């Protein structure tokens, strides 16, 4: 399936950086990325790798120095122009055993670029490690050839979700109590709109929460079918259906 | 999202059994299931749980005895009639770190009931733990409310896949080198047909393998888009698209 992944991870390493990318610039890689390049990928002087910063496209670079603290790269030339992706925002509930990181990884592969954890009544996870989740998304973006890394926002409480402005966008609410309808047909009718979607916690939403969501403006309530899907499965299924229906493939 | 999962796993335990299910029968649960009921679910005498055997529907039963080796259940009454699901067969390549078990778990939730691992040239996993994979599917079927557990077949070599009879069914081949087409539209046109689908290994198919697949009869070649998906993501996305397009939700 993913021959390309293989090529990318073993032959062409890709790295997200906050640096400006410009021909002949020299940049230093330290911290986690230094460890990854040196100890995991066993990079050597002269090796080439790709860099992207979410703004200026993808650039080829060459290792010019490896010290005990950093790796120095020289930027050679631009390899791909920047792509600006459709921003589909995902609201989700944190899951047991950090399984929400799995959601971030898989949904990044599927092109979702904004994640906001929402604390609901039946959610038994109260802490969310934002930087760990960001790293999971960054790594997925690097591996799957994206030219942007996803935003992982701070956790918000359910009431703050209700205060969100859905005036200019649609919130797709995948609700297990929604009557069965063909989701593909309905999502098809939303083409051209700004889309966000909401995935509930393991324990589901409370009746009060469900009612509050349905009272919001611009909410589309959809069913994921008669099957009982775990929250992480539901997230991947939702993102697949939205992306494939929108034809953003 | 999965309020129902919660109910099922904490309030209504479901268990697959090979026993005949009939009113007033007494049956013994031992082995792994005994351990699960006693030590994980901490079941007590008088507790009720659901049983299904893939043939005779779902039955309510009551714990009548708990010994140090087994739990005895009395079958009370039928709760749901047997459902016979559409059999969509998944061929996949074994993945590193047993990540194929994740494919089996998620695809079971999505209603796929037959799994056959295929050994290909670029696949670096040569052993496949069939019973572990079966247990993963059984557990998913128990948790997601299915009335059947999936078959997990023995691993076959790529050449045996080619000998498979696709005369009476379609093989959907998700091929990263396929030109971009709208997969939903094409799958839609296959309604009413018997479907199987093939997910490649991490390293992709070799050129010879790809050519041999495309030479088979009744193969539909589809793209999962321009994104680079890992093999496990590709599997879930494929199953979602097939199930939702077929409307078997």
TrEMBL record, chains A, B:
Enzyme Commission code(s) on record: 2.1.1.193
Keyword Disulfide bond: no
SUPFAM superfamilies cross-referenced by the UniProt entry: alpha/beta knot (SSF75217), PUA domain-like (SSF88697)
GO cellular component: cytoplasm
UniProt entry keywords in alphabetical sequence: Cytoplasm, Methyltransferase, rRNA processing, S-adenosyl-L-methionine, Transferase
Domain (Ribosomal RNA small subunit methyltransferase E methyltransferase) ranges: 87-243
Domain Ribosomal RNA small subunit methyltransferase E PUA-like, chain residue ranges per copy: 29-76
Protein name stated in the entry: Ribosomal RNA small subunit methyltransferase E
Native source species: PS1 clade bacterium
């Amino acid at each position: 399936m993913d021959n390309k992944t293989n090529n990318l991870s073993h032959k062409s390493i890709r790295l997200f950086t906050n640096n400006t990318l410009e021909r002949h610039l020299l940049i230093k890689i330290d911290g986690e990325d230094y460890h990854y390049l040196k100890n995991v990928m066993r990079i050597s002087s002269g090796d080439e790798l790709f860099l992207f910063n979410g703004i200026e496209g993808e650039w080829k670079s060459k290792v010019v120095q490896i010290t005990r603290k950093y790796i120095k790269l020289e930027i050679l030339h631009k390899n791909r122009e920047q792509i600006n992706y459709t921003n589909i925002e995902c609201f989700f509930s944190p899951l047991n055993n950090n399984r929400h990181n799995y959601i971030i990884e898989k949904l990044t592969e599927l092109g979702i670029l904004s994640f906001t954890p929402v604390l609901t009544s039946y959610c038994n996870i109260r802490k969310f490690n934002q930087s760990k989740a960001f790293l999971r998304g960054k790594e997925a973006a690097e591996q799957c050839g994206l030219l942007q890394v996803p935003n992982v926002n701070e956790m918000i409480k359910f009431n703050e979700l209700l205060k969100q402005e859905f005036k200019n966008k649609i919130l797709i609410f995948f609700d297990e109590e929604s009557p069965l309808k063909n989701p593909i047909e309905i999502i098809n009718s939303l083409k051209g709109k700004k889309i966000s979607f909401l995935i509930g916690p393991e324990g589901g939403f409370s009746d009060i929460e469900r009612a509050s969501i349905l009272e919001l403006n611009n909410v589309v309530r959809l069913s994921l079918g008669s099957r009982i899907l775990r929250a992480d499965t539901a997230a991947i299924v939702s993102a697949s259906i939205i992306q494939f229906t929108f034809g953003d493939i």
